[in-house]
Amino acid sequence: MSAFRYLLFDLDETLLNFGEASRNAFQLFFEQYLSHQGLNPQTLYAHYHDANMMVWEMFEQGQMSIDELKVKRFEWMYLHAGLSIPYDQLDEQSHYYLDALIQSSQMIRGAKEIIESLAADYHLNVITNGIYFVQHARLDKLKLKPYFQNLFISEEIGHSKPSPQFFDHVLKTLVGAQTNEILVIGDSLKADIKGALQSGLKACWFNPGGITNETDITPHFEIKTWEEFHKILQ
Ligand SMILES: [Mg+2]
Question: How many angstroms separate the alpha carbon of residue 222 from the centre of ligand 1?
Fold first, then answer.
């Protein structure tokens, strides 16, 4: 077994297939609220996706709260699609989408197997920038919670990755853990890998798309599939 004993996994696009779940959820949202208007769901989804990326980036930079984020992404979708914004319905629509997202939860290929195979020998934890009740509900839906010792969720902590405060909270909670025993695994260079490096932790970049790293953030390890992860732990 490796020197690592504590594994900190990001959730979205690392263990959970957010892209697929989000497209499914949006389709349900579209059928519920917009299908009668003769709009193209793919075009609207592209607007939603862009707005969602933007609000999360603002959230990670401390420029937006989670409550604003939930609603703003729909408001901006309507705005960018040139539609009138149904302000009185945005809360309800946001809830509908989040429920659909929970119901659409699914994992990245190989992720369930890796978590199952490591749970007996390692201290597994989740580190996620996400909405508290949504992340809990998705882990419940996928029956993943029993594998994890801690769920570190930005909304609950009050800080998000990559901020040092987020990782300070994690390190304080992992009583007795030495920093060289901890490995952070995530798909985001800016949130997961940068956050780990800033806090003196080793980091593994989950890069299934084989994206070229054009940042100055250099992970210690990189994997394209979960099957490769065992090699890092040897
Ligand atoms: Mg992620």
Answer: 14
